[in-house]
Amino acid sequence: MKDRADAVVIGGGVGGCSIAYWLARLGFGDVLLVERAELTSGSTFHSAGLVGQLRGSLSLTKMMMSSVELYRTLEAEVGLETGWREVGSLRLASSQERMEELARQAGWAKTFGLPLELVSAEEAQRLFPPMSTDGVLGAAYLPSDGYVDPSQLTFALAEGGRRRGAEIATGTRVTGIRLERGRVRGVETDRGPVETEIVVNAGGMFAAELGRMAGVVVPIVPMAHEYLVTRPAGVPLDVATMRDPSLLVYLRGESGGLVMGGYERHPAPWGLDGIPADFNGRLLEEDWPRFEELMENALVRVPSLADMEVVRLINGPEAFTPDGEFILGPTAVPGFWIAAGFCAHGLAGAGGMGKLVAEWIVEGVPSLDVWEMDSRRFGPHYASREYTLARTREVYATYYDVKYSGHEREAGRPLRVSPTYDRLRELGAVFGEKSGWERANWFETNAPSGDESLRPRGWAGRLWSPAIGAEHVACRERAALFDETSFAKIEVSGAGAAEFLESLCDNHVAREVGAITYTQMLNPRGGVECDFTVTRLADDRFRIVTGTAFGQHDRAWIASHAPDDGSVLVEDVTSKYACLGLWGPAAREILQPLVLEPLDFPYMRACELAVGPVPCLALRVTYVGELGWELYCPTEFGLRLWDELWRAGEPQGLVAGGYRAIDSLRLEKGYRVWGADVTPDETPYEAGLGFAVKLDKGDFVGREALVSAGSEPERKLACLVLEDPRSVALGSEPVRVEGRIEGRVTSGGYGYTVERSIAYAYLPAGAASPGQPVEVEIFGEWVAGEVAEEPLFDPKGERIRA
Fold first, then answer.
1. How far apart are CA 274 and CA 662, in angstroms?
2. Nearest to 747 by CA among 797, 679, 795
3. pLDDT digits (tens, 9 = 90+) for 745-784
């Protein structure tokens, strides 16, 4: 075995072998894969092998599509069978809400060119003859889906890697990760040390144990997943795979018989106190009592299953994550990467996942926006086994549930609360959760002031309240008070802080003390990696404020570029400061009596002042398009700050506002959301943020790519308004221009001031001009609209500068 490698991949499952294959295929020097036992002996060998391409996110769907592309060609490339069977897939609907879900998926599929079609129950039965049509309203059929043999695929990937120079060492157990000055320098194995600067933890259910060797938390929980295999019983060999999510089950053909499994409501975590050292190529004991629920459900859909002979009930542990997404990418330890937590769809994504991770290692940035799968998305609270377990249980138990827009997870809550939490509860807050924080979505006590007739049609109106509109209107006409304590706050300080930030930001941020700058940080391709404001607090100290869910990502991006000479310190200070946002035409009238200084400092400036007895840093910024301030104070003062503002605002009709109102307000002003309207796949020019780019300020990451591409992109983010105000886009809907699908919605909602349904979408530049007719497909219906001049509200920005 090599004692030196350019990259060491730990884990001989399908994920590890795919990464080794792609690293070798991309020509990444010496690649070594080490496996504690034999290839596929972890979770891979007992996977059911279903491959479905259409997923809930853009990047995950593209990853699955990339997998299918590889599975179609790998056998011819390496001369080994992969067991790929492109038999198509069915997803049944036995309720109206499931039919709505399928209609939404059909629209989503069109934006990828996937040939998904909605079929009748009778057509579904033709494609899967054993099924009963009782209660089935319809189905979605995707002919390019299928299933794959997990072991054959893994061995084919391993062979492909070997042919390109990768070495695979089985029977080699990793015993330690060698670090020097916080960076990876090698791995220790029971066959000797291996020097390397890149380690990929593809350990599957062992990934948490391997992570601890490097001081990295990998929040996964092995779940005992069961499925049965029957003997041949005359089932056609080319039968489509079938999922009946309402019954929690999936089925596929297997040599004339069936494979049947699912996701029960009462899952069984396993190995919480450690996985036995000799658990290689092994299964768990059959657990028929736990499987009974799924068996009864399956008999409803496939009655003939009762007469089939069962060969075996497979019960094997598979690693699940607290949010049901993969864990991919670099970690806080330079050189230590993770590719784990495949949540029972690892076979479906393995080919594309290996390509993505390999490209990420070779090129330094991923080829897709993968924040939802990024290993750095989890906060420190996921070091808690109790919290991780609670969230992961819920993910497994609700695997097949319909997830409406605005759906909130419940497990492990409440965890992180602001100092005003009890006050918000008293005011009738309906809480949501983000990054562990409890946040008010709206206040139901405001609902009587709203308009029930504005409830959007379909899914957009399910998790909705008239209170959202009431809070929106109050902010526009009087004032609203928002608790934004959960917003992530990052401080960059030190003698080199100014120069360092200038090298990362596309805007000029090293301005005078007190200046606030809206800026992006770009990747080398010119894509937007971060989108936030920067306030200069002192010559050597800056504070960044970013979205609640993006703090982990943004801090990691900044820290990964920081010099290691001690001249720059990057610190997450989110929990140190409470933040309240006071906005609206009456905001100055409310705040002025509480402070000694005149509130005449301009927009995009910061000022230290006392609000009553509370020391604050006041930032004159807005995400709602109204006069007002974000007020930051040490956390212990947060409750008193709320009370002072609330008492002062009552005579002016101040209302408490939630995040749903903020989203509606920001849509009217055209303010973007990173991760939806803006991602690492788009440049500032494409996103309509070119005004923040200062090419003449000197070099910064991504500048060269922007200069090469030019400031007139081929596609642009466009503001769309729909003719039917109650047809509200939720995101991902296809957009049609002159009969052709030209884009997909990035975000949408209703604007209570402009009284229009608003959606944003990337369109070809020639179709992004105001007045251009468009259509947006919302649950199977094409709704007419047009591209509008933005922003829709206060286009000259007079209100924010009042």
1. 45
2. 679
3. 999 999 999 999 999 999 999 999 999 999 999 999 999 9
